[in-house]
Amino acid sequence: MSQQTIPALNCGYATLSDGNKMPYFGLGCYLANPGDDAYGGVLSALSQGYRLIDTAELYNNESDVGRAIIDSGIPRNEIFIVTKFWSLNGHGKEKVFNSCESSLKKLQVDYIDLYLIHSPAEVENRDESWKAMEELKTLGKVKSIGVSNYGVHHLEHLLKICTSPPVVNQIELSPFLTRNELVSYCEKNGIVVQAYSPLAKGQKLNNPKILEIGKNYKKTPAQILLRWGLQRKFVEIPKSTNPTRVKENSEIFDFEINATDMETLNSLNEDYVTGWDPTKSP
User: Fold this and answer.
1) What is residue 180's three-state secondary structure?
2) Distance (Å, rounded) from C-alpha 89 to C-alpha 98?
3) How many other C-beta atoms are found inside a 10 Å radius of the C-beta of residue 98?
């Protein structure tokens, strides 16, 4: 595949607190089935200008992501790879190091752009896991380190014990789950918010207000939800392996939602969690 025929989306970049830059928009690979589904989805996204790919040890599709990246022909340094340490199998330096090495091999890369602790999980050895993340960064195995599904109390503790603070907190967010307190805490502490399930797993696409706003801009409900997140300065990672949907999701950089409609969208919060919610765990 010719590199010249694959222009990157003009989505802009979030500057992380460590100085690295991360695209504001990418592809989420949660529930992308291992094999052709994940491989094809990532290859399609890359061919349509996506340059951020989010996967995880848990998803069991890192090998397919790595294969698609190689086959895309796009230079490695133009693609921002996020993956995650599955902390629910237990914390600790050895577990973090082993998981990172496994991810590097499966992805067939020399470094990971952003490595996250997937959830707070158990309290025991949680601090040791973060120290291991910092060491991986020092060793050059990962460029940036962060967390996922951390609540305010988790972040408060982490910021007290860390040498390198987390640059990202990846959490579920949509107009129906705004998490204002957590988002505000992240913003005040220089932590970029990355939004997973920004389409609420499709469960709110028929909401009358979303449909009405979509008509005003001649955009689909999904595009309105994603544009809302971008204007809130969240890094959006919608999941799809359907090439048509992958394209539709990316067509959100040619319009802006006005202040009145943003207020309407901001008012839709109902704490609507579509998956798990470790942000409230001990």
Assistant:
1) helix
2) 12
3) 12
Higher pLDDT, 122 or 188: 188
Which of 121, 47, 45, 123 is CA-nearest to residue 85? 121
Cα 173 to the chain's mean position, in Å?
11
Is 217 a residue of the active site?
A: no
27, β-bridge pairs = 53
From 24, 39, 50, 59, the catalytic residue: 59
> Burial level of 164, CB count in 10 A (0-12/13-18/19+)?
middle
> What is the pLDDT of the chain when averaged over all its residues?
95
- E-strand spans in 218-268? 235-236
The tens digit of pLDDT for each residue in 131-180 reads 999 999 999 999 999 999 999 999 999 999 999 999 999 999 999 999 99
Instruction: Give the per-residue pLDDT at 3.
Output: 39
From residue 158, alpha-carbon distances to 80, 91, 123, 140, 168 in Å are 25, 14, 12, 22, 13
Neighbours of 215 (CB within 10 A): 11
Q: 162, 192 in Cβ contact below 8 A? A: no
Distance CA 236, CA 249 (A): 10
- Per-residue pLDDT at 4: 39
**How far, in Å, CA of 64 to CA of 41, rounded?**
10
The 10s digit of each residue's pLDDT in 3-44 is 334 799 999 999 999 999 999 999 998 877 778 899 999 999
